[in-house]
């Protein structure tokens, strides 16, 4: 149909314009005729719609942000959802995915907005990745929106204030902090419609822009009422499926049974959600134990192996030695998947492994296919079809193969908001070793869960500072990080309780098994560490002491990063320079031993040294040199030699990490991708 014939039906387009399906983020160039400001776009000029008809671009700002549900009903769930926000002269609208009417989830008429301001949030943990909140107050509601950066938030607040400056309903006082848990965090008032507690100035200089007085000629003319915005759709109940069993450890926890459905009620904490089971029982569950029923997550399927590279997949399939053994794993290309399939050829016992990339169509409604173009709307449908039909594969998918032990993931603490552990609940067992802080022992929590217990030696660290930081560190949870479960701070010595890793530190693991590792084994260790470090980098957390001695190995041979951020609290001459900075010189870049400048890029340098440790199977870097000599050598451009077990490509990655300038080094995201690609190539 033509635009004209659809004009009435799509009348809303004249308000919000026609926009690209998603906000332009990252290194992409802005659309022609537009100007970029940070991560938001301010559009000028005109563009063509899908039918090729030119239309006015009325959008002032457009960006993917996160909104908190407004909970207009008492029973409405509290959750956080990503939405595409679009600001025009007449409304602030938000969409699910793309700016089309059928995807619009809600809107606010500009004329009804009474207050736009940032939210002071020093007392509240924000349970989503965007950490910069602002509020839009209209009618009897408050919309809390979360921007990815301060610059993004400032753009939205400034532009919204500019649009509402002529409104005659601007508030005199407002609430500078969140309404949460039935109370305003600023003034502790428990009535949601309670008057504000702090003076509100529309602009920072305190000057409120007053609408210009109308002339007598127009004074008594009736203005047409603004268009009535559509009612905001109530958020649907979020149903999740348990991927693992979970046994409650506290009265406020909820038991999870693998395969059962649960309704999410609140998401106040990113790691612990409040949920309800089919019997109506409510409690907290670990968010990494469930997956959305409507999501495209593959975690619930037994044939999906998330953290396996090509060589690991081949080893598992060969060990199983079954015709049609298969698994689906993450491809080295982010967001894509690979089917690894084992087949026997002829009657002579010959066998082989094939790897098939799951391909996607480029059509608007994405579909999936393997060797031949039998298209399916989802990956589970594709797998189910090929279980019964080879259809171009070397054999059909007969038998899902997974690691024998698929343990439940670690949780951020033992329960919701439980970081202080009662020492009476700990059972101390054999000594595992000693480190900078004191003795480490194997133990059990409540005589059931194996843990590692570090007893902090008196005077070994800045205890008060660490106790505060421990609360933050507990929120860091990833399959390739050693999980901090909690601390015992009510007595001395302080205890730090962490995940137990059966094979101990990576350095000893390498030395004790020297000569028994394949190159693929060593590369997998580096990949494990890079995954953990990419997570820390993404969460703006600096390790400061990345080395093989600070990584641990579990019973499955998985390497996890440990002791991240701990060196800031250590009192030890080995880690302290004359200026008072703490660092082990042989793992440090020039900006650290010269200026004590730590960053994710200084961690990248240390990761290059860790890779060298791995591929030398535990040798000491600069073994025959003193710290002073190492500083001189690094400053003059000397670098560690290429290990015998490292290929040119692997050594090239190390050298990239050792670039003199921080900005010349790759990010952990880039390193992880390069290592994944190298792992795929080495086993092809």
From TrEMBL:
Single Gene Ontology BP annotation: adaptive immune response
Coiled-coil annotated spans: none
InterPro entries: Kinase-like_dom_sf, Non-receptor_tyrosine_kinases, PH-like_dom_sf, PH_domain, Prot_kinase_dom, Protein_kinase_ATP_BS, Ser-Thr/Tyr_kinase_cat_dom, SH2
Ranges where the PH domain occurs: 58-165
Keyword list, A-Z: Adaptive immunity, ATP-binding, Cell membrane, Cytoplasm, Cytoskeleton, Immunity, Kinase, Lipid-binding, Magnesium, Membrane, Metal-binding, Nucleotide-binding, Phosphoprotein, SH2 domain, SH3 domain, Transferase, Tyrosine-protein kinase, Zinc, Zinc-finger
Catalytic reaction(s) noted: L-tyrosyl-[protein] + ATP = O-phospho-L-tyrosyl-[protein] + ADP + H(+)
Topology within the bilayer: Peripheral membrane protein
EC number: 2.7.10.2
Domain Protein kinase, residue spans: 426-676
SH3 domain location: 235-295
Active site (UniProt): 545
Pfam families, sorted: BTK, PH, PK_Tyr_Ser-Thr, SH2, SH3_1
Names of the cofactor(s): Zn(2+)
Binding-site list for Mg(2+): 550, 563
Chief place where the protein resides: membrane
GO cellular component terms, semicolon-separated: cytoskeleton; cytosol; plasma membrane
Residues that coordinate or bind ATP: 454, 549
SMART domains referenced in this protein's UniProt entry, alphabetically: BTK, PH, SH2, SH3, TyrKc
Top-level taxon of the source organism: Eukaryota
UniProt domain SH2: residue ranges: 303-401
PANTHER family in the cross-refs: TYROSINE-PROTEIN KINASE
Family per record: Belongs to the protein kinase superfamily. Tyr protein kinase family.
The protein's name in its UniProt record: Tyrosine-protein kinase
Species whose genome carries this gene: Micrurus lemniscatus lemniscatus
């Amino acid at each position: 149909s033509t635009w004209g014939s659809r004009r009435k039906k799509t009348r809303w387009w004249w308000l919000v314009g026609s926009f690209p399906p998603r906000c332009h983020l990252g290194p992409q160039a802005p659309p022609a005729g537009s100007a970029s400001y940070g991560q938001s776009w301010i559009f000028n000029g005109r563009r063509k719609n899908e039918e090729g008809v030119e239309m006015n671009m009325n959008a002032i700002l457009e960006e993917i942000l996160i909104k908190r549900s407004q909970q207009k009903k008492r029973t409405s769930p509290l959750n956080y959802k990503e939405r595409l926000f679009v600001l025009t002269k007449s409304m602030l609208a938000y969409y699910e995915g793309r700016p089309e009417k059928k995807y619009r989830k809600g809107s606010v008429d500009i004329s009804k907005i009474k207050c736009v301001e940032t939210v002071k949030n020093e007392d509240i943990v924000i349970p989503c990745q965007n950490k910069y909140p602002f509020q839009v107050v209209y009618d009897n509601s408050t919309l809390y929106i979360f921007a990815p950066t301060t610059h993004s938030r400032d753009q939205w607040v400034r532009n919204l204030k500019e649009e509402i400056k002529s409104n005659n309903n601007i508030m005199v006082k407002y609430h500078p902090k969140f309404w949460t848990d039935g109370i305003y965090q600023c003034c502790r008032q428990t009535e949601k419609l309670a008057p504000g507690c702090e003076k509100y100035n529309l602009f920072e200089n305190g000057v409120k822009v007053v609408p210009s007085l109308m002339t007598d000629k127009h004074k008594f003319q009736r203005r047409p009422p603004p268009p009535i915005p559509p009612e905001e759709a109530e958020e649907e109940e979020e149903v999740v499926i348990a991927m693992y069993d979970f046994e409650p450890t506290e009265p406020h926890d909820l038991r999870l049974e693998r395969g059962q459905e649960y309704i999410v009620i609140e998401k106040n904490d990113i790691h612990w959600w409040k949920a309800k089971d089919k019997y109506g029982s409510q409690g907290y569950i670990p968010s990494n134990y469930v997956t959305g029923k409507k999501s495209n997550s593959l975690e619930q399927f037994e044939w999906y192996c998330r953290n396996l590279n090509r060589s690991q997949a081949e080893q598992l399939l060969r060990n199983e030695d079954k015709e049609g053994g298969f698994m689906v794993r993450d491809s080295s290309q982010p967001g894509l998947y690979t089917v690894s399939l084992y087949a026997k050829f002829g009657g002579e016992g010959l066998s082989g492994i094939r790897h098939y990339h799951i391909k996607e169509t480029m059509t608007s409604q994405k579909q999936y296919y393997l060797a031949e173009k039998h298209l399916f709307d989802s990956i589970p449908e594709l797998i189910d079809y090929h279980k019964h039909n080879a259809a171009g594969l070397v054999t059909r998918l007969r038998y899902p193969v997974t690691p024998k032990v698929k343990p439940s993931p670690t949780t951020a603490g033992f329960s919701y908001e439980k970081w202080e552990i009662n020492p009476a609940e700990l059972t101390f067992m054999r000594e595992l070793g000693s480190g900078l802080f004191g003795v480490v022992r194997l133990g059990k929590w409540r005589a059931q869960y194996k843990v590692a217990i570090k007893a902090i030696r008196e005077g070994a660290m800045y205890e008060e500072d660490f106790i505060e930081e421990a609360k933050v560190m507990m929120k860091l949870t990833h399959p390739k990080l050693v999980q901090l479960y909690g601390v015992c701070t009510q007595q001395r010595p302080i205890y730090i309780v962490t995940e137990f890793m059966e094979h101990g530190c990576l350095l000893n693991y390498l030395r004790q098994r020297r000569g028994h590792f394949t190159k693929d084994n060593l590369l997998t260790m580096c990949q494990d560490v890079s995954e953990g470090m990419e997570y820390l980098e993404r969460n703006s957390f600096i390790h400061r002491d990345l080395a093989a001695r600070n990584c641990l190995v579990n019973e499955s041979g998985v390497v996890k990063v440990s002791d991240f951020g701990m060196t800031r609290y250590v009192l030890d001459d080995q880690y302290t320079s004359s200026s008072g900075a703490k660092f082990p010189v042989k793992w440090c870049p020039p900006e650290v031993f010269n200026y004590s400048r730590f960053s994710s890029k200084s961690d990248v340098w240390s990761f290059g040294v860790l890779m060298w440790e791995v591929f030398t199977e535990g040798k000491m870097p600069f073994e025959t040199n003193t710290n002073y000599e190492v500083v001189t050598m690094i400053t003059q451009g000397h670098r560690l030699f290429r290990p015998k077990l490292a290929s040119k490509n692997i050594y090239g990655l190390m050298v990239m990490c050792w670039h003199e300038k921080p900005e010349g080094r790759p990010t952990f995201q880039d390193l992880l991708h390069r290592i994944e690609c190298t792992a795929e190539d080495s086993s092809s």
